[in-house]
Design brief:
By secondary structure, the chain is of the alpha+beta class. It is 32% helix and 28% strand. The N and C termini lie far apart (102 Å).
Length: 715
C-alpha cells in the first residue's frame, strides 16, 4: 500500500505543498499541488511507442472544472466541453519546459494531465500545474531529467511579488512566468508595461532564486516517494550518422547556404532522394537500412549542416548574426475596413486588419475567476499556403492560439484607456508568407494597423525573435531575426516585443536543458538594438496614430449622467430610450454607474442621439434661461417642458411685467416660450419666469423690456 508523502515550503505569503501516494496511484506519477485554497492534481502516464514514429509523442492537457470554484459551467449541457483558450495556453506552458528534458531518441507515449480540483478564485492553477508536472515526472520511472521549478512574478510599486493573487496581478505592471532548473532558465512567458531590459533581467534573477527552492522541494519529494528510474533502450544511430555525414555533409552545407527558402527546401529534398536511392536501393533486402532510421539521421545531418555554418560565421541567408532581414511596411491596403497594414520581414509577411466596434462586440470570458469582458482581441491565422503546403482548413490549433495570445498581450499595454477611447478593437493577423517569427511580425503589423485606424496608442510596438546555436558553455552564437531553419535546427527561440521605452512581451522556448544568465542578458541587449531598428522602419509608413478614425467605423460618444436618472432615460418598459434609438438610428448603452455610450454609423446620428440623452437627463439649473414648449395652460399659469420629461410652472404673475387677465392671452399649448428658472423646491418642482427671461434678453440686446415682450407676443 502506498504511503502518503507531503512536502511544503513558504513561497511569498502562503504555503506551497506537494503531496503524493494518496490519489491516482495507477498513474506513472501523480502529485497534488496546493497553494492557498487552490488545489491541482497532476498525473503522468506512459505507454509503448507507436510503430514507425521518429518523434517524442508528449501530450500535455490542463483543465479547469467549474465546480472547483463552486460554479456551474455555462451552456445547455452544464458540462465542460472543448478546452477554453486559457486551458489551451496553460497546456502549452506545461509542455514547453519539460519537453527538452527527455533524452533524444526516447519515443514512448507520455501524457501529462492537470486538473484544478479546488480554486480560491485568487490563485491561478497554471503555475501550480507546471510545478506538479515536473514533480509527477520526477517521481515516476520515466527518464525525465528534472526537476524544474516554475514561478509567476508580479511587480507592485517597484516590489517583486512571487505567486501573486488575482487582485495583486490587476495592480501589477508585470506578469512573468519563468521555468528553470537550479542553475539555468528553460522557459519564459511574460508581459509588462514597457519594462526596461535591466529591470526585466532582475525579475528573471528573482524568479531563478525561487526556482532553486522549488527544485529542492521536488528533490525532497523524490527522496521520500519517488520510484527508481527505468532503463530505456535508445537507438544507436552513430554508425549510420558517420556514414551519411561522410558522404553528404559537404553537399548539405552548400544547400543550406542557398538564400531562398523554397529553393533551399527543393535542393535539400533532391539530395535526400539521391542519398536514399544510393543507401537503400532495395528496402526489402536483408540488412537494408531502416527507412525510419535513415529519416532520423538525415534530420540530424540537416541540423549539423546548419549549425556548422552558423558557428563558422555563415548564416543560411548570408547575414551576420545581428542583422535583420529587409523590412517593408505599408498601411491602407484594403478599402472599407477600419484599418489595414502589411508588414514584411524577409520571407515572413503579415496582413493585418482592424475592426472597431461597440460595447456589444466585447468578448465575454468566464472561468474559475469572475466573469469579465475583453475590449481588445487579436486573432492569428496561419494558412497552409503560407509555407507552400496543403492542409485541410480546421479551427485554430494550439500554435495559432498561442501566437495570437502572445501578440495580443504584447500590444495591449500601449492601448488607450477605454474611458478615452471606448471602442472594442479586434485585430486579425493573416500570415501570408512564413519563414520565421510570424508572431512578432503580427505585433509589428498590429501596431501599424492600429495607428492607421486612428487608435491613439501611446507608443508603437515592435517584436523580434533571437535564436541560439550553442556547442559549449563558451562557444555559442546569438542570431537576430531567425529564419525557419535557424529556428528548427537551433537551440532557442527567444521572442521579445516592446516599445522604445521597454519590453511589453517576452517568450523563451528552448530545445536544450537551459541557458545561462549571460545568454539571457546578451539576448535582451541584442533584441533591443533590433527592435529600435524595426521601429525606425515602421514609422516611415506612418509616424503616429491618425487623428480621426475611419469613416466606415461606428461613431461612439460617451457621457456621464446622474445614476438616479437612468430610469428617466430608459423610461417605462424601455419606451423612452427605444424612442431615441428609433428616431436617430443610434444604439445607446447605459451602465449602472451612469456611463452612457451612444453608437451610430455616422457622427450626425450619434450627436443627435447624444443631444436627446443630455437634454433628458440634464439637471435643471436655477438662473438659466431655457426655450421650452408649453405643454399645458391653466388658469393660474402655464406648464413649460424645459427638457424631455421635465416641466416647470410659469405662474400667471411671472408671465409679464404687464397685468395678464388670462394665461391664454400670452401663450397657447405648443408655443415655444423663453423662460428663466427662478427656483426649484425640495420636491424638485421648478418655478419659471417669462418676464425675467424677457428682461435678461432685453439687457443683452440693449432694448426696452416692453419691446422684447411685444415681439415675443407677436410671435
Amino acid at each position: 500500500m502506498a504511503v502518503k508523502v507531503r512536502v511544503e515550503r513558504t513561497i511569498g505569503d502562503r504555503v506551497l505543498s506537494m503531496e503524493t501516494g494518496l490519489l491516482a496511484k495507477q498513474a506513472a506519477g501523480s502529485v497534488l499541488v496546493q497553494y492557498g485554497e487552490t488545489v491541482v492534481l497532476v498525473a503522468a502516464a506512459t505507454g509503448a511507442p507507436r510503430a514507425g514514429i521518429d518523434f517524442f509523442p508528449l501530450t500535455c492537457d490542463y483543465r479547469e472544472r467549474a465546480a472547483a470554484a463552486g460554479k456551474f459551467p455555462g451552456g445547455f449541457l452544464k458540462r465542460e466541453g472543448r478546452p477554453t483558450m486559457k486551458e489551451t495556453l496553460t497546456s502549452r506552458l506545461i509542455d514547453r519546459p519539460i519537453r527538452p528534458l527527455f533524452p533524444v531518441g526516447f519515443n514512448d507515449e507520455v501524457q501529462v494531465q492537470a486538473s484544478v480540483l479546488a480554486s480560491d478564485r485568487q490563485t491561478d492553477g497554471d503555475v501550480l500545474a507546471m510545478n506538479g508536472a515536473s514533480a509527477a515526472l520526477c517521481i515516476s520511472e520515466l527518464p525525465f531529467h528534472g526537476p524544474i521549478g516554475s514561478v509567476r512574478l508580479a511587480q507592485i510599486d517597484g516590489v517583486f511579488v512571487p505567486f501573486p493573487s488575482q487582485d495583486q496581478l490587476e495592480e501589477s505592471d508585470l506578469d512573468l512566468i519563468v521555468s528553470g532548473s537550479e542553475d539555468s532558465v528553460l522557459m519564459i512567458e511574460g508581459f509588462a508595461r514597457e519594462m526596461p531590459e535591466d529591470r526585466m533581467l532582475e525579475a528573471i534573477d528573482e524568479c531563478q532564486r525561487i526556482i532553486r527552492e522549488l527544485c529542492l522541494m521536488q528533490k525532497e519529494l523524490m527522496e521520500k516517494g519517488g520510484k527508481a528510474k527505468k532503463e530505456y533502450d535508445i537507438p544507436d544511430y552513430k554508425p549510420l550518422q558517420e556514414r551519411i555525414y561522410g558522404a553528404y555533409l559537404a553537399d548539405m552545407k552548400q544547400i543550406k547556404a542557398i538564400e531562398g527558402k523554397l529553393e533551399r527546401n527543393e535542393a535539400s529534398k533532391k539530395l535526400k532522394e539521391r542519398a536514399k536511392a544510393e543507401l537503400i536501393p532495395d528496402p526489402e533486402a536483408e540488412g537494408a537500412i531502416c527507412e525510419g532510421h535513415f529519416s532520423h539521421v538525415w534530420h540530424d545531418l540537416e541540423e549539423k549542416a546548419v549549425r556548422e555554418l552558423i558557428l563558422e560565421g555563415r548564416r543560411p541567408d548570408g547575414r551576420d548574426s545581428a542583422s535583420l532581414r529587409p523590412i517593408s511596411c505599408e498601411v491602407d491596403l484594403l478599402p472599407r475596413v477600419h484599418g489595414s497594414a502589411l508588414f514584411q520581414r524577409g520571407e515572413t509577411q503579415a496582413l493585418v486588419t482592424i475592426t472597431l466596434g461597440t460595447g456589444k462586440d466585447e468578448q465575454r470570458v468566464d472561468g474559475l475567476f469572475d466573469e469579465y469582458s475583453k475590449k481588445f482581441m487579436l486573432d492569428y491565422y496561419f494558412p497552409s499556403f503560407s509555407v507552400g503546403e496543403v492542409r485541410p482548413i480546421r479551427g485554430p490549433g494550439r500554435r495559432e492560439i498561442g501566437h495570437g495570445a502572445l501578440a495580443e498581450r504584447s500590444v495591449k499595454p500601449v492601448l488607450p484607456d477605454p474611458d478615452t477611447f471606448p471602442y472594442t478593437i479586434r485585430v486579425i493577423s493573416d500570415i501570408l508568407e512564413s519563414n520565421g517569427s510570424s508572431s512578432m511580425a503580427s505585433v509589428c503589423g498590429a501596431t501599424l494597423g492600429l495607428m492607421a485606424a486612428g487608435v491613439p496608442i501611446s507608443n508603437p510596438v515592435a517584436g523580434i525573435s533571437v535564436g541560439l546555436v550553442k556547442e559549449t558553455d563558451d562557444r555559442w552564437t546569438l542570431l537576430t531575426d531567425i529564419i525557419g531553419d535557424e529556428d528548427h535546427f537551433g537551440d532557442m527561440d527567444f521572442k521579445i516585443a516592446g516599445s522604445q521605452a521597454g519590453i511589453t512581451g517576452i517568450q523563451l522556448d528552448l530545445k536544450i536543458a537551459g541557458i545561462s544568465r549571460e545568454i539571457i542578458k546578451a539576448t535582451l541587449g541584442q533584441s533591443r538594438d533590433a527592435r529600435m531598428e524595426i521601429l525606425r522602419n515602421m514609422i516611415t509608413a506612418i509616424r503616429r496614430p491618425r487623428a480621426e478614425i475611419s469613416g466606415h467605423a461606428p461613431r461612439l460618444l460617451r457621457t456621464q449622467i446622474n445614476p438616479e436618472k437612468i430610469g428617466l432615460l430608459i423610461g417605462p418598459g424601455g419606451k423612452t430610450i427605444r424612442a431615441i434609438q428609433e428616431s436617430t438610428g443610434a444604439n445607446i448603452e447605459v451602465e449602472d454607474d451612469g456611463t452612457v455610450t451612444v453608437a451610430a454609423h455616422d457622427g450626425e446620428s450619434a450627436m443627435a442621439a447624444m443631444a436627446k440623452v443630455e437634454a433628458l437627463t440634464a439637471s435643471i439649473q436655477i438662473g438659466r434661461v431655457y426655450e421650452g414648449r408649453v405643454t399645458s395652460v391653466k388658469d393660474f399659469g402655464a406648464f413649460v417642458e424645459l427638457v424631455p420629461g421635465k416641466d416647470g410652472l410659469c405662474h400667471i404673475s411671472e408671465l409679464s411685467d404687464e397685468y395678464v387677465a388670462s394665461v391664454g392671452d400670452v401663450c397657447q399649448v405648443g408655443d415655444v416660450m423663453r423662460v428663466k428658472v427662478i427656483a426649484v423646491d425640495d420636491q424638485d418642482r421648478v418655478k419659471l419666469s417669462r418676464r425675467a427671461a424677457m428682461r435678461e434678453l432685453a439687457e443683452e440686446n440693449g432694448e426696452a423690456p416692453e419691446a422684447v415682450e411685444a415681439e415675443s407676443t407677436d410671435e
